[in-house]
Design goal:
Serine Threonine Protein Phosphatase 5, Tetratricopeptide repeat, eight-stranded mixed sheet, alpha+beta
Length: about 400
């Protein structure tokens, strides 16, 4: 039996092994104060925002370790903006630079400054609310890119995308929906490696039948930044996090999105869903090993990242391939590999994926500690997908 000490647990946290840390933490060989600090961090990842906020506030008062202090402040900033306290989030990011700037890489400093811009711009926006009246079904509409898309009551097509860190809208659609535009000039990383500038927009109210969102934050892009000429496809709007999380529990089905007013009669195992800031992570099993993947219902296909390649390149057959990735701001081609058949298991359900691409380099910093991004090619092999943010669990049926 392995005895986990504080340093062991903290390394798991830093490498985003949240599911493993959540499992071993109750029996870890650590002091009560150390346990409280780790609980402050890990409860944020499993969406216990109120608990994490209180624990982090206490931990910040007595922690002396600068590395731990830095992580606590990062988590507290995350807690604040998820609770709709955007101004407090900006202030916590300023403290991060005030006390820890020399410990951050230049790219991390730019990201923190970007966070200050983003959340300071939203300081006066009230917290988002979501209201459900009865059980709601939103039917998917035909989509040229085969993305899960439904129509708002105002007639606007919205892509439903768990991989979108924030909801997104193009300028013309924001104007059509009378959204309030807040100049922000935040930098958004493009798949090309470049940057795209975006402002903020606030939708005072969005209605999808009996599902009503209020005070929803959107990143606003120029129309051309969300246009894909190779397939003549324009994205008008994307419903992403935290709007999706506000629904709490929902089923993604073949014909549409089912949002129950209240989820009842289900016993949930330990969480297999976590949030790394605004990025959903899912616990995936491959060859009896648990691997964290990012979770993106807006991606047509699953893709594997450099971490998978480095760990499995000598164990499975890989064919060389060029990989073209696209997103806001353009597309780029990378050298990679392909796997003929890849069996992945989530929550006891296995699907065999064919022709899966494997990147041999990271395209984004967020890819460094995850093994891949789970897409629609896995999801569509099942009739129904339950995502429960109230239980932090994903179930396929």
């Amino acid at each position: 039996m392995q005895y986990y000490k504080f340093d062991d647990c903290f390394k798991l946290y830093q490498s985003k092994q949240y599911f493993k840390l959540n499992t071993i933490l109750p029996n870890a060989y650590i002091e009560d104060a150390e346990r409280m600090m780790l609980n402050a961090l890990i409860q944020n990842k499993f969406n216990y925002i109120k608990n994490s906020t209180e624990l982090t506030k206490t931990a910040l008062e007595f922690t002396q370790n600068e590395t731990v202090l830095r992580e606590l402040r990062l988590v507290q900033a995350d807690n604040f903006y998820k609770a709709g306290a955007y101004g407090k989030a900006a202030e916590m990011y300023r403290k991060l630079l005030q006390y820890h700037e020399e410990k951050f890489e230049p790219k991390e400093i730019r990201e923190i400054k970007n966070g200050i811009l983003l959340w300071e711009s939203a300081r006066d926006v009230p917290p988002q609310t979501v209201e459900k009246k009865g059980d709601i079904t939103l039917e998917w509409i035909p989509d040229k890119a085969n993305l899960k898309t439904f129509i708002s009551d105002a007639g606007t097509p919205f892509v439903f995308d768990t991989g979108a860190n924030l909801s997104v809208v193009c300028e013309s659609t924001a104007a059509k929906l009378n959204m309030e535009i807040i100049p922000a000039g935040v930098e958004i990383g493009a798949i090309t490696g470049g940057k795209v500038r975006a402002d903020l927009a606030v939708a005072k109210e969005l209605k999808f039948k009996e599902l009503t969102f209020k005070n929803v934050l959107f990143l606003v892009f120029k129309d051309e930044d969300l246009y894909f000429p190779s397939v003549d496809y324009q994205i008008h709007a994307i419903l992403g996090y935290p709007a999706i999380e506000g629904m709490q529990d929902f089923f993604i089905e073949k014909t549409g999105l089912f949002v129950p007013e209240k989820l009842e009669g289900i016993q949930f195992p330990p969480p297999n869903l976590a949030m790394d800031e605004l990025l959903p992570l899912i616990n995936v099993e491959f060859e009896n090993t648990a691997l964290p993947f990012s979770f993106d219902t807006g991606a047509a296909k699953t893709i594997l990242f450099k971490l998978f390649y480095e760990n499995y390149k000598d164990k499975i057959h890989l064919d060389e391939a060029e990989i073209k990735l696209g997103g806001a701001g353009g597309s780029q081609t990378y050298t990679g590999s392909k796997i003929g058949i890849l069996p992945l298991t989530i929550g006891g359900q296995t699907a065999n994926l064919k022709g899966i691409e494997v990147l041999q380099e990271n395209t984004m910093d967020k890819d460094k500690y995850v093994y891949g991004n789970l897409g629609q090619d896995y999801i569509q092999q099942f009739d129904s997908l339950l995502i429960s943010f109230s239980n932090m669990y994903v179930s396929f049926q």
